[in-house]
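User: Just a sanity check before I run the rest of the batch. Below are the structure tokens for the first item. I only need the designed sequence back.
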């Protein structure tokens, strides 16, 4: 931590971009790294599989790791600093603070993983304090995480800009994820159903469907047709509050979590509001057509 701070403070005038990760890096992570490299004078990446965001029943010990490969990729990309702390550095004996949010953490991922976002918010708050970035980069792939962390940044007055990068996908539509490495060949072949289901709901929305339940039912039907897939949830929710919608009026976050064997995959498509004042405000916040947005 001291070493990171020394690098960060060597020239306080430089802008630093920061990409927090759990490693086993793929092209989705690297797209965030590229955004950071393009938008800042220096770029830091962290690689830390944070135990507090995994429940005891989850896949912490099975989570894929490849530190040497990750470091080679980041060095080749031109990253300036990689922070790879161990648990004793992040959670020394006597550690007792938790950052928890009361509302946006409750539905969706929070209802399936009740302790997950307190772990995420706590570790990201620590990483922000250690790295003190000018801008922090997160993927739309983890839609609720972006909403939770934006809220934390607002509530705790972190002096940084949040930038959200688009979801990187395999050619068959499967969202890139470190967890894809845990899929059997059979489940890997079945997994593109997740994005097919989201795309079918989006196509229905584009054709005029505005019933939240109808959109959820479309996703259910597409996913249940694949025997390897077991639905955890399907959702058509308000993109700000994450409450399930009866009627879509101003944008919708279509999202789902699906088990393939023991591996749980999540994905989403965000449809932003297209009319009125909201749309204007959203447009003003857009950084262009590249698909990422500042806070
Ligand atoms: P993780 O290592 O899974 O914790 O992810 C680190 C960061 O990369 C998070 O901000 C994720 O949202 C982001 N990320 C993960 N997968 C993708 C993807 N397929 N496309 C874009 N960003 C991603």
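Assistant: Here's the designed sequence for the first item:
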């Amino acid at each position: 931590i001291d070493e990171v701070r020394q690098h960060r403070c060597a020239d306080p005038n430089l802008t630093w971009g920061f990409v927090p990760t759990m490693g086993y890096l793929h092209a989705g992570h690297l797209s965030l790294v590229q955004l950071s490299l393009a938008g800042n004078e220096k770029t830091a990446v962290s690689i830390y599989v944070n135990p507090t965001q995994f429940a005891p029943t989850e896949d912490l010990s099975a989570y894929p790791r490849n530190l040497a490969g990750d470091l080679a990729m980041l060095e080749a990309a031109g990253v300036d600093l990689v922070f790879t702390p161990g648990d004793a550095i992040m959670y020394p004996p006597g550690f007792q603070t938790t950052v928890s949010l009361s509302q946006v953490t409750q539905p969706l991922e929070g209802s399936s993983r009740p302790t997950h976002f307190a772990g995420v918010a706590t570790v990201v708050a620590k990483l922000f304090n250690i790295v003190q970035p000018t801008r922090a980069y997160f993927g739309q792939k983890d839609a609720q995480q972006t909403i939770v962390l934006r809220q934390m940044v607002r509530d705790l007055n972190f002096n940084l800009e949040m930038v959200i990068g688009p979801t990187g996908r395999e050619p068959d539509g499967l969202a890139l994820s470190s967890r894809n490495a845990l899929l059997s060949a059979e489940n890997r072949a079945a997994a593109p159903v997740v994005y097919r289901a989201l795309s079918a709901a989006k196509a229905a929305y584009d054709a005029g469907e505005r019933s939240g339940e109808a959109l959820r039912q479309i996703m259910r039907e597409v996913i249940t047709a694949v025997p390897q897939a077991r639905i955890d949830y399907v959702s058509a929710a308000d993109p700000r509050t994450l409450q399930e919608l009866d009627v879509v009026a101003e944008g919708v976050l279509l999202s789902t979590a699906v088990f393939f064997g023991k591996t749980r995959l999540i994905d989403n498509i965000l449809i932003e509001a297209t009319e009125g004042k909201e749309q204007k405000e959203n447009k003003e916040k857009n950084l262009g057509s590249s698909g990422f947005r500042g806070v």
